[in-house]
Known about the structure:
The chain is α/β, with parallel strands linked by helices. It has two domains: about 25-50 and about 305-420, Aspartate Aminotransferase, domain 1 (Alpha-Beta Complex), CATH 3.90.1150.10; about 70-300, Type I PLP-dependent aspartate aminotransferase-like (Major domain) (Aspartate Aminotransferase, domain 2, 3-Layer(aba) Sandwich). The protein contains 17 helices and 13 strands. The chain has helices at about 5-20, 30-35, 55-65, 85-95, 105-115, 135-140, 155-165, 170-175, 195-205, 230-235, 265-275, 275-280, 285-300, 300-325, 330-335, 365-375, 405-420, and strands spanning about 40, 100-105, 125-130, 145-150, 180-185, 210-215, 245, 260-265, 335-340, 355-360, 375, 380, 390-395. α6 links the parallel β3 and β4. The chain is globular, with a radius of gyration of 23 Å. The N and C termini lie far apart (about 50 Å). Mean pLDDT is about 95; it is low at about 420-425.
Amino acid sequence: MNSGIDTLCHKLEQTLARRREKGRLMVPPSPAKLDDLIDFSSNDSLDLSTSGALTKAFMNEIKTHPAFTVGSTSSRILDGTKQYLLDLERDIAKFHRAETAMFFNSGFDANVALWSTIPQPGDFILHDEYVHASIHDGMRRGRATTLSFKHNDCQAFGSCLEKIRTENSGIAEGSQVVFIALESFYSMDGDSAPVVELLEVAHKTLPRKNFIFSIDEAHSNGIVGPNGSGFVSHYGLEEQFPIRLQTCGKALGSTGGIAALLCNETIKFTLLNYARGVIFSTAPSFVSAAAVRAGYDIVGSKEGEDRRKRLQSNVYRFYHQLTSHPDWPQIKRKGTIYLPTEHTWNLGPFQSPIVPVVPRYDLADDLAKYLEQAKYWVNTVHYPIVPDKMDRVRIVLHADNTQQQIDHVAVLIMQWAKKQGGRQAQL
């Protein structure tokens, strides 16, 4: 008997037990269970993967390159940079109107590499408080000073920039840089970054223009913009965002969450030389890269445009069915359900497929089980992934969800809410 491993496992089991007692233990559902449920949960929002469309396009790509090798054989700095990968990086950069692109095995890896490597000593990183955990992990490993601003709050953003400029001569003089880290669609709140307004504030507050905007487009790549080229491309702000992360494991449905970092050649070569996750990791394989190309082939086609239109129509329908329900005013007044995006869903040209439904914080699992009983699968999200007492049901709409399914989910949510009676939300 190994007393060391026994002692460790005892400690870990106690930790897991505490999380279980608080109702926050994460237990992945079995594949067999999901097979019987209708998907209102996965990030495959265009249904490229589940519909089989991506499989067909992937097989066509395989047939085009019958002599491919499965593995990439090495890291990017050795012989892992194959011609197919270079060609794909060139084509993806062109698709997104960027100078160049660099592929990573996942969006998480890309963010850690970027934020731990590129900002230099004396630089600052000002980030929205809700940016992804991978950005936080990268910043913690980096050498720049980090600050956060209140989520999507342009006034708070400006105040933070003024503080940085006032208290740091290098920023005031323009010899140091402020990096600004955002997401396009935020993964838990389903809202979008006010990029135009934030840019205006930055130009006004830092007249020497010594700032660099970076955006993680994990949840907008393939969904918005010309041919699905993304959030920044929709606004024509490619030059204002010299660093963009386009992950391919969500709307594009590709394997492993593989991601393309859009940047310039200097940043790319610096990452090749200094990012530990690049130097000491095997490069993306042909199989992964081929799945990415197949996904881009679809999103840039008429089928991709049709899927984007259906998705936006479905998102609009869900919001409309929920908020126009005759019981919605009463439910909202009692605080039974809070919909963070209620006042913005019909204002812009597009919406995120992510819809957070926030019941009283201890009832998120109960609502999810109610929907599951009707054969709909949704995810519950608990603290610390979301703020304390803001546990929620995270609904993701899909291009292939039917109108009947969408209407039924909205009705079920209202039925559940009415059963809660007059219990007040504790938000």
